[in-house]
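From: lab user (bench 3)
To: helpdesk
Subject: output format question, protein + iron/sulfur cluster

Hello, I'm new to running complex predictions and I'm not sure whether the block I got back is the full result or only part of it. Here's what I submitted:
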Amino acid sequence: MDLEIQRKKAEKLYLSNFGCRTNFERAVFFSWYCAIRDCKYCYMSTQPSNKKPHEARRRIESVLAEVYLLGKFGWDFGQLSGGHEAFDEDELENLLKLINIIHKQGIWLNAGPLTEGQITRFKPYLRGIVGALETPRQSLHDEICPSKPISDIENTLDLALKHGLETSVTIILGLGENKGDYDLLKEFIERFKISVIHYYALNPQKGTAYENTKSPPQEYQGWWISKTRLDFPKIIIQCGIWADKVNQVAYLLNSGANTVSKFPALKLFGRPEAIELERQFKLAGRSHRSNLTHPMKIDATADISELNLPESLKTKIIEKINMYLKRMN
Ligand code: SF4
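Helpdesk reply: Thanks, we reran it on our side. This is the complete output you should expect:
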């Protein structure tokens, strides 16, 4: 099918299922450490092998400050994401518990393969599990993710379904796949009852095997989004864009995507890129509740003080929130 016809049909289907709305989704990261560390496109693969988990993870108060701010600024909580085994099981459960005290809703977790015991412990705080498939063709996946076999992701998603959680998948376009691989992805979506799919265009990382490759054009990302929308009218499609691709947002939304993520909203709040992102939402004909440009008066001390958190942690979270707000303002 001609791409423009495909996109128009996908947009029409989107509007009939979701209306003319969109939003910005924030993925909250918790570490620069990953026990797997050899996926060929990933920044973590450039990190020294002797790095210890506790040396490369974010402070709890920083994660919690971001969770608080995303709620205040109307950003959706896309997922909690970080390297495999950056936190041990007790620590990750504790982090999820603390996030739940602030966010008050189940979240999506993207932390690599999980055991049934882990899923059982984490599920009171979760909406669903994200499987970082990245590319659906087995031979390509084996080559670029040698220590993260598709079977581990499948097992984790099976366990998520068994425990009544929703399932999601991430795809990075530009890793060597082609449009012929779409049917494999379609089967994966059907088999694991995927309700949310994240389509990122490769952002080549310095020091990785993809350093000198190019990120695919918006037409390619738009093709995958619109194709998926036509096959799965009600699936949530989220498109990841980096700061240098903000001008593609209207095109991607009008290909049938629901929301936008990856934009570094804390760092670029109120900057020209954020202003452009909001303009693109408008250009796409979508309303949104996320504020990416206007400073707000927020009384973090009052809000955090009344939560059921350890007193020493409250002080640290408030300090962090105020630090972020100062930077954003
Ligand atoms: S498992 Fe995820 S975080 Fe770890 S190296 Fe692979 S892509 Fe990177």
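A quick orientation on your result: Residues 311-328 form the longest helix (18 residues). Let us know if anything else is unclear.
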